Amino acid sequence: MGRLWVLAPAVLVSLLVSLGLIVLLRPWLARHALAHPNARSSHHAPTPQGGGIAVIIAAVSVSWGVIALVPAVIGDQGVQVLAVTAAMILLAVVGAIDDMLSLRATPRLAMQCIAVGTIIAALPADLQILPHFPWWVERGCLLLGGLWFVNLVNFMDGIDWMTVAEFVPAIGAITVLGIAGNVDFLPALLAAALLGAILGFAPFNKPVAQLFLGDVGSLPMGLLLGWLLLQLAGKGHLVAALILPLYYLADATLTLAWRTASGQAFWQAHRAHFYQRAVDHGLTVPEVVVRVFCVNLALAALALSTLAAPHLEWLALGAAAVIVALLLVSFVRGKR
């Protein structure tokens, strides 16, 4: 119960900070960071991007504010949280530059490798999710997985409220697990602060969006989501960590595989994601994001159920896969 009295206010304060910063920054973003529609866009009018600045500032400042007020909470995870914070700030800066000037792929990827590598270097040496794997193989897989999560949110943030529909259930579930003591306090604190920051951003991004997240938000948010899921898996809840992001992983990974197999340049902007095809096939943006949100609520419930009934966790993973598959099929079919 003690954690509730810290994490709940963290959500509220972060929401207010994010909301206030967006109100202050939006006029400046409208002048300097406009996203103009093109053939691959889902919007039809120039729209300011960069709302992620407020999200990241709120999440980081509230988290460290709590740590400053209660320094005893930092425990043995201080180095990790410092590394995560530094990596998020680095990616936010890279994303902000990309939003305004459009960086080339090579320097962008190099900075992402530095950010993910910093977090992996700060992990405890004895942390292993899969003990039967060689340590160096798992660390290499974590590097690749971290890079995938950094870009995952960026790839999937293609229509209004999509990131809200993904993050609120997933990060909310991690916050609940933190309150219950199934996740260490500091990861739970970062999750709570990020949850509040996203909720503060949500009113401005609802269809039709007045503000986009931008790379300045999507890149560090993907990094933080990956680290939070790693913390969950490190506590022995690997299946829950797989279930929570399953829709994002399925849509983005299958799309990447299909584009690679068909010889397309997968790193270029496109409209081949399942959710984008659903819009092209007649579903409205609200219809798509409501379906995604409901599926993610179901995934969050299944992830939480694996902690209540560990002997049924693989059954929960199977159910999650079926739910996600049905959603993807409905997106391919479109409006009938």
Structure overview:
There is one protein chain. The protein contains 13 helices and two strands, in the order αββαααααααααααα. The model has no long low-confidence stretch (mean pLDDT 92). Strands 1-2 form a two-stranded antiparallel sheet. 73% of the residues lie in helices and 1% in strands. By secondary structure, the protein is mainly alpha-helical.
Which features characterize this protein?
336 residues, mainly alpha, two-stranded antiparallel sheet, 13 helices, 1% strand, globular
Give a brief rundown of this model.
With 336 residues, the protein is mostly helical.
First-last Cα distance = 49 Å
Please summarize the sheet with the most strands.
2 strands, antiparallel
Q: Please work out how many helical segments DSSP would assign.
A: 13
Radius of gyration in whole Å, from Cα?
A: 19 Å
**Uncertain segments:** none
Oligomeric state of this protein? single chain
Portion in strands: under 5%
Quick one: how many beta strands? 2
Largest beta sheet: strand ordering: 1-2
What is the typical, i.e. mean, pLDDT?
92
Shape: globular
What is the string of helix and strand elements?
HEEHHHHHHHHHHHH
Estimated helix fraction: over 70%
